[in-house]
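Morning run. Coffee first, then this:
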Amino acid sequence: MRKLKKEYSQREGRDLAAVCARIALDAKAEDLVVLDVRGLASFTDYFVIMSGRSTRHVQGLAEAIESELSAKRISSKSSEGLREGMWVLLDFGDVVVHVFYHETRGFYDLEGLWHDAPRLDVETLLTDAAQ
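And here it is:
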């Protein structure tokens, strides 16, 4: 089993959420939202939620995130929905990434379900992670 690269071995969930957000934005994700669900959910600390313009775009976003994190030796504990491309879930432990086809996102309304969770400003998150 490969060891996690040293610079990523102590990475906190917030930093991992920032990495996921940066990859998503580089791949042209739409309506990117990062929710801090610490204290509200026992299974993760952050949700990274985004939309894609088509099922292929959704698949491409998920594959880009998984591929780049895999290169850093961070692999998802599980992933669901990649084949269909309507809602892809990538579980990285401290961070759960949700990639939605834009119409599917409105139907499930995760932001509404987790309305108590603070939204992180993505620009601030990316700036803090770069320092």
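The longest helix spans residues 55-71. Good start to the day.
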